[in-house]
Amino acid sequence: MGRPASLRTPSACRPVGGSGPTSGRCSGTTTWPRTPPPVAPWRGATPGSRTRVSDPSDLIEDALGVRPFRLHPLPGGASGGVFRADLPGGEAVVAKVAGVAGLAGLAGVDSGVGTATVSEAGSALGIEGRMLTYLAESTGLPVPEVLHSTDRLLVMEHVENDGSRSDTGEEEAAEMVAALHGNAGPAFGFHWDTVLGGLPQPNPWTPSWVDFFARERLLFMGKACVRAGRMPSETLRRVERLCAGLDRWLEPGPASVAGRESRTALAAGPGAGSAAGSAAGPALVHGDLWGGNVLWRGGRVVAFIDPAIHFADPEVEIAFTTLFGAFGDTFYRRYQEIRPLRPGFLEVRKDLLNLYPLLVHVRLFGGGYLASVERILARFV
C-alpha cells in the first residue's frame, strides 16, 4: 500500500517491481555510508503533547495527525505491542507501542490487543526505526517506510502480504540478501548498538571476526542467560572454553588473517584449515532473518522486517536462515551462485554460528533451546 495518501512522500527504498531485485540500488557492492540521524517525529506532530497516554490511538494521532478508528493485533512484538491501525479512508499503517498494557476494552481496540508488553528497554523501538531507515537509505533491501519513530512509538507503512511463495521469489530473495551482503563495513560491529528480539546487541567496532563473535555475541548473551536464570553457570563456562579456542574453527577476518594464518593452521591440526575456511570481510547483515521476518505476496518478497543489523561474516546470516526454515533449496542454490559458501560451512561453522541465536532464544524462552545449545557445545568442547 505504501504511505497513506495524506502522508505520502517519496520513499527511499521500495520493492523493485517488474525488473527484478537486482535492479537499481539492489545490485552491486557499496561501502558503508555515514551514520544517519535518528528519525524525526512526523511533521505536524507536537512531541509530548500528551503526557500520560494509555491508548495507542492517542499516540498515533499525535504522531501522524490522523486518528485510527480501529486497531488489530499483529503477531510478533518483542519490542512492543504491534497493531495494524486502520485510518479514515480505508488506509492502514503498522504501529509498535512500547509498554502496552491494559488496553482491552478501549474504544476501537479489538479484543486481545491489550496484553503485549515490551520485553526490554523502550528504546528498542527507536533503534528499530533507525535500523529500518538505515536499510532504506543505504541499501536496496525492501523494507517498510518509517513514518514516525521514537522510543515510545514506531509507525510504518502497512505492506500487504499473503504468505504465498514461489521458486522465482526464492531466487529473488537470494539476490536481495546477497546484494545486502555486498555492503562492506570498516570492521565488524556497527555505528551504534542494535537490538535482537528486544534484547540489547552490542556492536563495538572490532577488527577480528573471532574476537567480535566470541565477546559481543556468545559471551555477552551467555552471561545474559545466566543472569536471567535461564542457563546454568556450568554451561556458560563451556561457552567460555569454546570462545578461548574459537579461532580453530572461525577465521578472524581478512584484516587480521595474514599475521595468524600459518599459526592457526598449525594449531588446528589436520583438516581444520578446511573447517575454518577463509573469513569474509565485514558485510551488512539483516541479523534476524527467519521466515516470520520476510513478507511475501503473489510469490514475491515484498519486504523484510524486524532487522537487527550489523557488519558480520555473512555466513552468520545464512546459518540463521537454516535454523527455522526461512527459505527453501532454491534460495540457497541461487545465493551460492552469487556468493559461494566456503568449505566447512555446513559441516562445522553453521552449528557454531547458530549458537548465538540459540542463546538469544534461551534468554527469551528457555526450555528446549538450552538442550540445543548443550548439543552444539558437546561437539566442540
Report on this structure:
This protein folds into two domains: 35-157, Phosphorylase Kinase, domain 1, CATH 3.30.200; 167-380, Aminoglycoside 3'-phosphotransferase, Chain: A, domain 2 (Alpha-Beta Complex). With 381 residues, it is of the alpha+beta class. Helix 4 (209-227) packs antiparallel against helix 5 (233-244) and helix 4 packs parallel to helix 12 (355-365). The protein starts with 29 loop residues before the first strand and ends with a helix. Residues 8-53, 101-122 and 255-277 have low confidence and may be disordered. The protein has helices at 56-64, 123-138, 167-181, 209-227, 233-244, 254-257, 261-268, 272-276, 315-323, 329-338, 345-353, 355-365, 368-380; strands at residues 30-31, 70-73, 81-86, 92-97, 146-149, 153-157, 183-184, 194-196, 199-201, 283-285, 294-297, 300-304, 310-312. It contains 13 helices and 13 strands. Strands 2-3-4-6-5 form a five-stranded antiparallel beta sheet, with helices on both faces. The protein has a two-stranded parallel ribbon with strand order 1-7. A two-stranded antiparallel sheet has the order 8-9. Helix content is 37%, strand content 13%.
